[in-house]
Fold this protein.
Amino acid sequence: SWNVFEDKILYQLLVYLQPPPMHTFRLELYNAMHLAERCSNIRVMLESPCSNMMGDMLCSLHPHHNNQTVQCSPLLCTLCTGSYLDVEEIACWVQNLVQSAWERLPQWHDWKLTVLPSARSCRILLSRPSELQLYAVLVFAVQQGSP
C-alpha cells in the first residue's frame, strides 16, 4: 500500500519469505487454539524427499531427515534461533542487504538512503535535496499452508 502526506510518500510492502530448498515453514499453535503472531513461532523443518508420498510415516531411506531439525546452512544459522525463524535477525540481515545494494546504484546518487532502526521490519527513508521524502516499510510474512 502507499499514502501521500504533503511532501512525504509512505510505501508499505509485504515481503513473503520462502523456505530454502528441501525445507518447509510450519506455523506452530500458541495455547493450542490461536496461531502465534510472532515470527519466533515459525519452525524451519528439513523435508524428506519422501514426505509427499508417505505423509506422517517415518522414511527408512532418508533417516537423517526424520529428526526434522534445521540443517545449519550459513544463511539459516543467521536467520534462525534454533529451529525457528528469528524476525530480529531477518530484519537486521535485510537492513544490511538494502544498505549494501544501495551503494551499488549510481543512478540514485542524488538521493540519500537512511535505514531507520527497527527490530521487526526494515524501515527505509529516501530523501532528496528537493525536500521530497520516500518512506518504505518492508514487513516480513510467510504464507500459511504453502511450501
User: Anything to note?
Assistant: Residues 2-47+63-142 form one domain. The helical segments are 51-54, 74-79, 87-102.
